[in-house]
Write a structure and sequence with these properties.
Layout: H1 2-17, H2 22-32, E1 33-41, E2 44-47, H3 48-62, E3 66-77, E4 80-89, E5 96-105, E6 108-116
Parallel strand pairs: 1-6
Antiparallel strand pairs: 1-2, 3-4, 4-5, 5-6
Helix pairs in contact: 1-2, 2-3
InterPro entries: NTF2-like_dom_sf, SnoaL-like
Organism: Dyella nitratireducens
Domain SnoaL-like: 15-111
């Protein structure tokens, strides 16, 4: 389960939130997430592939040149995992950072909790 959870965490970061191509992003969402997935974030809650796809695409459009970079190694515990990350222009200091926590069910992400760190002034 650890290897699968690690893969889901990394692929979510790159293939969903880091993907600029809408077709590849949608394919990744369908591969990685359960149909009834729930995403909890500071801006609200998303349910299902359609809502996640729209949000990830809209977010990507606001900063298409940003890269998502894992910070440290993922950690897993039973059917959950977490991964810290940063996002900013490729090769530069991240403009924002956060932590993803996933709950895995039947080999896919059933829930994603996105914690954003405070942006320094």
């Amino acid at each position: 389960m650890n290897d699968l959870t690690h893969e889901l965490l990394y692929r979510n970061l790159q293939d969903v939130f880091g993907e600029g191509d809408a077709t590849r992003r949608r394919q990744a969402i369908e591969e990685l997430y359960t149909e009834d997935c729930v995403v909890y974030m500071p801006l609200g809650t998303l349910v299902g592939h359609e809502a996640l796809d729209k949000f990830a695409g809209d977010l990507r459009a606001t900063h298409p040149h940003f890269a998502y970079t894992p910070h440290g190694e993922p950690q897993t515990l039973h059917h959950a995992g977490r991964l810290a990350w940063g996002s900013g222009p490729r090769g530069e200091k991240p403009e924002y950072t956060g932590l993803d926590v996933i709950i895995v069910r039947d080999g896919k992400i059933a829930a994603l909790y996105v914690f954003l760190d405070a942006v320094p002034a």
